[in-house]
Amino acid sequence: MMHVTQIQAADDTAVKAPTRRALAKQQTRAKVLTAARRLFSEQGYEGATIRDIAAAAGMSTGAVFANFSDKSDLFREIMITDMAALADAMREAGAQGAGVEDAILRMFTAGYAFYQSQLPLARAAFSVGWSPQDGPALRSAPPVQVLNSLIVEQLAKAAERGELSDHELTLRAQMLFDAYLSNYPQAIFEGWTVDALRERARDQIRILLAGARRS
Amino acid sequence: MRPPRDLTESGARGDPTAARPPVAASAVLAAEAPPGQRRTQKAATRNRVIEAARELFDTQGYQGTTIREIARHAGVSVGSVFTTFASKGEILSQVMQDRLDGLYGELDRVMPHLRGDTVERLRTMFAIHFAFEVRHTRLFLAHIAAAYDWTLPPTARPMGKTPRLQEIIRECLAKGVAEGDVDPRVDPQEIVDLIMAAYAWVYRLAAWHDADAPTMTKVMDRQIGLIAAGFQPRG
Fold first, then answer.
1. In terms of domains, do B80 and B93 share one?
2. pLDDT at res. A137
3. CATH T-level topology, domain A1-68
4. Which of A3, A59, B168, B182 would bridge with A63, disulfide CB 3.0–4.6 Å?
């Protein structure tokens, strides 16, 4: 019947039109994110302005603001994408570990390898992470929490196996994560290689686990 | 108004009324004064800027303070602020450095008299830190953030790299080795790095959750205890 066909036709355009729009929007977002990633890497978080980012992406500042509420929103989006990929890499690396010490070391090494090629962005991330304004939001972003919980899982599994005691498990995991982060300045400012970072992390993990060892 | 003492001690000082001249007079003085006095003039401007910045940073935060406000508060022109400092970040760096110098001076006096084993001495040392810094945690955070963000001169390092604090911890550990409660086979720098990482974390706790000095000290005590299990000799 005629009206059914009309409804179907209307349905089709209703489905197609937003898809095209959504696609265009997605492409715009991707373009902005690529430009932003480059400018944050080159000029730091404070140094990169929305205007510069818009110009680099070949669009107006208005178009940027139509997709992102502000600069911190833009930066958080980049970080969250990276952190999610990083969490996958770390989870995979940790699963191959022989024992808790090796597992955590493999996780950390995967992290250092991940950021080795984009240290300027890591530097910008540290800046934002320490900032009194934007730090809490970045630090409590779900993917960052996932990284932390990966360490908790490793310690909990080791406790189940009887390899470690679960004494101060949460604090110990937090300290391991902070030890992992604390080595980044060596890479950013002193040019440490992934191998050098791994050797340092190996000792740090050993020290932090010493008190939980069952012997 | 009396100039700061270190200025008086730093050498010949010009007319005392030049200590806080209006902007125009300052420019004239700088132009006409002989080289020695010009240096003194520059030092006076520098001190006034730092003093003004310290007050403004403390009351309205680093982000909330502009160079223009600092200049107005110091009674100097914006231009003369920029002839002395390259950026707001550099002013912050100097303000924090002065503060840390005061803290380390106090620690130098106190540390040789601390009793107890290495763990207790480390804990006391950080308790002193937190009592001293708790009023300025957000400012310290801003300083660390700025050091990562190009806004500080390349020589500036995040607080975690503060060499003097690391030296104090190393001295504490060396004493522990001599007294037998620190394993001599442990690399002291690794312990220093772990303690600094713990310290940094406690800092965020303070800034983001408004933890007070006793709360910071309590968390740090637990972290030092956990690290200590890794440096105490195994019997």
1. no
2. 83
3. Arc Repressor Mutant, subunit A (1.10.10)
4. A59
Confidence of residue B24 (pLDDT cuts 50, 70, 90): very low
Does B157 sit within 8 Å of A189, measured CB to CB? yes
| Chain A residue closest in CA terms to B198 | A175
Q: Indicate the number of domains in chain B.
A: 2
Among B25, B49, B84, the domain boundary falls at: B84
A142-146, A195-199, B117-121, B135-139: which has the minimum mean pLDDT? B135-139
From B151, B208, B230, residue closest to A207, measured CB to CB = B230
Residue in B closest to A127 by C-alpha: B145
**How close, in Å, is residue B183 to chain A by CA atoms?**
12
* CB proximity B205 to A under 8 Å: no
Across B66-72, average pLDDT: 95
Among A126, A130, A175, A215, pick the best mutation site for testing chain B contact (most B Cβ within 10 A): A130
**B194 interfacial to chain A (CB closer than 8 Å):** yes
Spans in chain A with pLDDT lower than 50:
1-10
Residue A124 to residue B222, Cβ atoms within 8 A: no
Of the residues B84, B109, B137, the one at which a domain ends = B84
Interval A88-115: pLDDT, tens: 999 999 999 999 999 999 999 999 999 9
CB contact under 8 A, B61 and A211: no
In DSSP notation, chain B reads: -PPPHHHHHTS----GGGGS--HHHHHHHHHHS-HHHHHHHHHHHHHHHHHHHHHHHHHH-STT--HHHHHHHHTS-HHHHHHH-S-HHHHHHHHHHHHHHHHHHHHHHHGGG--S-HHHHHHHHHHHHHHHHGGGHHHHHHHHHHHHTT-S-TT---GGG-HHHHHHHHHHHHHHHHHTSS-TTS-HHHHHHHHHHHHHHHHHHHHHH---HHHHHHHHHHHHHHHHHHHSPP-
Of the options 1.20.120.1460, 3.40.50.300, 1.10.357.10, 1.20.200.10, the CATH number for the domain spanning A70-215: 1.10.357.10
* Substitution target from B140, B143, B150 for chain A, most A beta carbons within 10 A: B150
| Nearest CB to B226 within list A44, A185, A208 | A208
Give the model's pLDDT for residue B161: 58
The whole-number pLDDT of residue B23 equals: 39
Look at A97-111, B73-87, B100-114, B159-173 and tell me which has the smallest mean pLDDT: B159-173
Least confident window among A17-26, A172-181, B61-70, B145-154:
B145-154
